[in-house]
Amino acid sequence: MLIAAALGAGRVREVALPDRDGLVVADGDLARLSSATANAVGGVLSASTVADPRRLTVTLSTTGADRTPGDVEGAVTAALGGLGLARQVRVVSRTPAAAPSSRPAPSTTAPTTTQEVHHA
């Protein structure tokens, strides 16, 4: 039983590209494409993506621009569309809180605000 679970855990999920016989893309590749696309959008400080068979969840650190999550969702959806793929894109945006100017910034991660955008 443990051997079967161990073998299944490392399996790479791949998706066939429409209209491109024999070409496939792995979920990890879609995650890297989505993160790179998100990082190219103005206002994004950093981005990471988790891919599963139905959706991509892009987590952003932003400068705080309100439209950034929607811009990222549109850019990632367009990038996937260029491959002929359609997946649900979920964007989670975190804006680092500004540290008070009278004190040095703490060495730990600053509190963040979170905004989620869900698009089907």
Class, according to the CATH hierarchy?
Alpha Beta
Radius of gyration from the CA trace?
A: 18 Å
What's the number of domains?
A: 1
Query: What is the number of helices?
Result: 3
- Outline the biggest β-sheet: 4 strands, mixed
Name of the CATH architecture: 2-Layer Sandwich
* Arithmetic mean of pLDDT: 81
Which H/E pattern describes the elements? HEEHEEHEE
> Which residue ranges are poorly predicted, with pLDDT under 50 across at least 5 consecutive positions?
none
Distance between the termini: 37 Å
The structure class reads alpha+beta
Percent of residues in beta strands? 25-35%
The shape, in one word, is: elongated
Summarize the structure.
The chain is of the alpha+beta class and 120 residues long.
